[in-house]
Amino acid sequence: MKNYLTTFYLLTFLLYHQVTTAAESSPFEQLPPVYLEKFERLDNLKRETLKNYYGSTMAIAIFGINCSWCKKQHRMLKKLQNECPNFNIVMMGIGRDKQKLNTDLKRNQNKFPAFKINNNLLSALNNENVPRLILFDPKGNAKLNLLGYTNKIKLLSLLDQQLGFQCQG
Length: 169
Known about the structure:
The protein is built from six helices and seven strands. It has one domain: Glutaredoxin. α1 (2-20) runs antiparallel to α5. β4 (88-94), α4 (98-107) and β5 form a beta-alpha-beta unit. It is an alpha/beta fold.
């Protein structure tokens, strides 16, 4: 039930944000809101959008500081990325201390783009429980909100069944 509510809140946020940010001047302004949101990178502190990932299946992997299940999720995602290079993964850290978030990622030998979660996305999640995976289809629609550790077999199965995604590796 919690997962359905969280997914509902996330989709409501995305729909609301899409309505309030609609514009017609550039093709990127027609992207779903999560791709237009600005997030602060953890490696260089620059603010960027996720528009480069639009058009591909993507997961936002949300992690916290000193979270053992997040580390396990991160290891699994690295293995999956080696097998499925066509699956995009973006890390989002929850926590005020950017340096600690970055240190955690370095300790895990992170190769994914990593950002600090912004307040808009954080409030749409309804809680700060981690690890969490939010899966997006190529059109930018949030399709699944998975709370807790998700193993590779289950994730690949969900990607296939819910998003029609096939690993090409």
